[in-house]
Design brief:
Blueprint: H1 3-44, H2 47-80, H3 83-117, H4 124-153, E1 158-161, E2 164-167, H5 170-174, H6 179-208, H7 212-247, H8 249-256, E3 267-274, E4 279-286, H9 289-295, H10 317-345, H11 353-361, H12 365-381, E5 384-386, E6 390-391, H13 392-395, H14 402-433, E7 439-442, E8 461-464
Antiparallel strand pairs: 1-2, 3-4, 5-6, 7-8
Helix pairs in contact: 1-2, 1-4, 1-6, 1-12, 1-14, 2-3, 2-7, 2-14, 3-4, 4-6, 6-7, 6-11, 6-12, 7-8, 7-10, 8-10, 8-12, 10-12
Length: 468
């Protein structure tokens, strides 16, 4: 086994998944918000909702395309770098990925075209229905991916036959209690990402004193949604911690920075873990709180990393610091959302430009929280790929060389950087341009059965006024 090839393959997978997760975490929440916007437009008839919808639909389309392109590459790695994982877990992971294609991609691809080209060709109720189906498709995508990943975290419903993991109870795989904790946690993270990005964009426009009617819609809806979503996310985050505590005690000890068994256990707020000395330097701890968080008890015994063989311990530094960064981002978003919602309710939010700047500058926080949450989950799972039954070193392609892994990593990094640069630049251009001041719509007569009839240069146009 080439250990350098193993390290390079792990870096490559970490790089590609980190790049990819940015876009689904944004588009899943944005698709749900677009559904709300379209519903409000039908219910109230306000043109501003239509303008905001059309504006964010363009951004959704670009981000959705980037997510699809970056996600396709993910499947290649299972065959090139992780063929043993594919061989052994293929009977379970293969069908789960197929279910994603047949449900999520079918809905997204089938109805996304209606969103882009069908507003004047379908009834308003069907356009709203199509928007909801795209949102449902993105949700299904998250669901099947979380089922797949949760099975790797806590494998259930399988037997080993001929060196492969073969499902013997799909209900246990799909309806595992771990799935129904982790899936809402990821879904709420996506909704929160969309809400904070929308609110940050609204704050940016208000600071620039442009598109103020649309900016108020973005800011208020984003802030109000975040104010509700963050507490729910914290609750499901606690439930996720409970599953880690029960099923992955070594990961939980690494996250907590707990080296030795403690009863009752203290909670390490911050410190610098030292794996060699098996201690934390400059640690700040709160007595008893560790037992309360881990077991909802003031007297429980909590296990430390020294209770596990060194070869079964995860790396400590990454999950320890990543978890705290994630929690810190969540608390900052909670403060901004609650203060902003209170001021917005009193009609005073726009008077506090400092708060508007803070909301605008907060747009990276949900992405950072999502990435550090995944780092905590995935690095904390080490040294296992399928927890407790397949080590990462045994999941690698046996004949993979350092040279092949290096070339693959360089090519992926170059392509992803190229795609990311142009995609983000184009999204920035759309954000800079903002919602258009009017909508130019072809007259009904421009839609006979002949597809090219609107290109004859004689089509009339009408303007939709802007306003609240």
């Amino acid at each position: 086994m080439d250990l350098t090839a193993l390290l390079l393959s792990r870096i490559q997978f970490a790089f590609t998944i980190s790049f990819h997760i940015i876009f689904p975490s944004f588009t899943i929440g944005l698709a749900a918000w677009l559904t709300i916007l379209e519903g409000l437009r039908l219910a109230t008839g306000r043109p501003a909702y239509r303008l905001v919808f059309e504006f964010w639909l363009k951004i959704f389309g670009v981000a959705f395309g980037l997510g699809v392109v970056s996600g396709i590459v993910m499947a290649f790695q299972f065959g090139t770098n992780w063929s043993e994982l594919s061989r052994m877990s293929g009977p379970i992971q293969g069908p789960l990925l197929a279910y994603e294609a047949f449900t999520a991609f079918a809905l997204e691809a089938g109805f996304f075209g209606v969103l882009l080209f069908g507003r004047q060709r379908v009834a308003p109720w069907f356009y709203l229905f199509s928007t909801a189906m795209v949102a449902l498709g993105t949700t299904f995508s998250a669901f099947w991916i979380m089922v797949n990943n949760s099975w790797m975290q806590v494998p259930v419903g399988y037997v080993v036959e001929n060196g492969m993991f073969v499902p013997n109870d799909w209900a246990k795989v799909i309806f595992s209690p771990v799935v129904w904790v982790r899936f809402p946690h990821m879904l709420l993270a996506s909704f929160l990402t969309g809400a904070m990005c929308v609110a940050a964009t609204g704050a940016w426009y208000l600071l620039r004193r442009t598109f103020q009617a649309e900016a108020r819609i973005m800011l208020r809806m984003g802030i109000y949604l975040a104010a509700v979503l963050v507490p729910l996310q914290i609750y499901f985050g606690h439930l996720t911690g409970d599953y880690v505590h029960d099923y992955q005690p070594a990961k939980f000890a690494a996250i907590e920075g707990r080296w030795h068994d403690e009863q009752p256990a203290a909670e390490v707020l911050i410190g610098i873990p030292d794996p060699d000395a098996e201690t934390n330097h400059y640690a700040m701890s709160i007595p008893v709180l560790g037992s309360l968080i881990g077991s909802m008890s003031f007297t429980s015994k909590e296990v430390g990393l020294t209770g596990f063989p060194r070869e079964d311990r995860p790396p400590v530094l990454i999950p320890f610091f990543a978890f705290r960064i994630m929690v810190g981002c969540g608390l900052v978003m909670l403060a901004l959302a609650w203060v902003g919602s209170w001021l917005s309710h009193r009609g005073r939010l726009e008077q506090y430009r400092t708060l508007l700047w803070l909301i605008f500058l907060s747009f990276p926080l949900p992405f950072i929280a999502t990435l550090t949450g995944w780092f905590t989950a995935e690095v904390g799972r080490q040294p296992w790929t399928v927890y407790g039954v397949l080590r990462t070193v045994d999941a690698l392609t046996p004949f993979l060389t350092t040279r092949a892994a290096t070339i693959s990593l360089v090519v992926f990094c170059a392509i992803y950087t190229f795609i990311f640069s142009f995609g983000v630049f184009y999204i920035y251009r759309l954000l800079r341009a903002g919602p258009v001041g009017h909508l130019i719509l072809p007259a009904p007569a421009a839609f006979p059965s002949r597809p090219m009839s609107i290109a004859d240069g004689t089509t009339a146009v009408r303007h939709l006024p802007v306003g609240e």
